[in-house]
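From the methods appendix. Each design record in this collection lists the tokenized structure first, followed by the designed amino acid sequence. Records were kept in a plain field format so they could be parsed without special tools. The example shown here is representative of the layout used throughout.

RECORD:
FOLD TOKENS (201 positions):
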């Protein structure tokens, strides 16, 4: 599979990391659903390979295929809640003890892509997502309101923009990149494209 290299951060401060997210599995055969994420050197950094959306659990891996985080939808959640678990060598039955975050829609109405993230045992959201995910125009803010990550359409040059299957993800320094990528994976599941097209600004 060919690689799509990310552009360098254009802010000039050299602080944020810029990743290229390709909504395509690293597996090279038809029918595979997933993500491939490349760093600024064009190296595969994260991957998610899923053969069917019917599979309830998703596993975010590093570029070499090592499991990092498991993502599971909450059963019967009107807010489309998903829960994130840290992967380990331990038996899968112990994962319920290692829940590290929950992510869900802010409202039961699916008119926007506003999402809240609660870290372990959190009462108030630690992160909030605003904007329109399917237009690749959303921001992730910390509890203090600081923008810690954002997505944008991938530009080859000033006049050529790639399809929305390929987009840029910019992450501020000091922020856990695998955690942000896990948020992006869940956003892809809970933010429905038909609604986003009609309702997002």
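DESIGN:
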């Amino acid at each position: 599979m060919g690689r799509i290299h990310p552009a360098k951060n254009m802010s000039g401060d050299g602080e944020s990391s810029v990743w290229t997210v390709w909504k395509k599995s690293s597996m090279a055969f038809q029918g595979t659903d997933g993500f491939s994420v490349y760093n600024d050197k064009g190296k595969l950094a994260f991957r998610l390979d899923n053969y069917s959306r019917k599979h309830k659990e998703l596993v975010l891996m590093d570029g070499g295929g090592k499991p990092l985080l498991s993502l599971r939808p909450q059963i019967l959640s009107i807010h489309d809640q998903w829960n994130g678990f840290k992967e380990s060598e331990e038996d899968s039955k112990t994962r319920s003890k290692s829940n590290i975050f929950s992510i869900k829609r802010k409202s039961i109405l699916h008119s926007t892509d506003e999402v809240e993230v609660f870290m372990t045992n959190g009462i108030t959201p630690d992160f909030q997502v605003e904007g329109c995910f399917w237009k690749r125009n959303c921001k992730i803010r910390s509890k203090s309101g600081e923008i810690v990550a954002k997505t944008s359409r991938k530009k080859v040059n000033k006049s050529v923009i790639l399809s929305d299957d390929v987009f840029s993800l910019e992450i501020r320094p000091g922020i856990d990149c695998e955690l942000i990528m896990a948020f992006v994976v869940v956003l892809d599941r809970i933010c429905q494209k038909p609604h986003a097209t009609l309702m997002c600004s």
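APPENDIX NOTE: The domain at 17-199 is CATH 2.40.160.200 (Porin).
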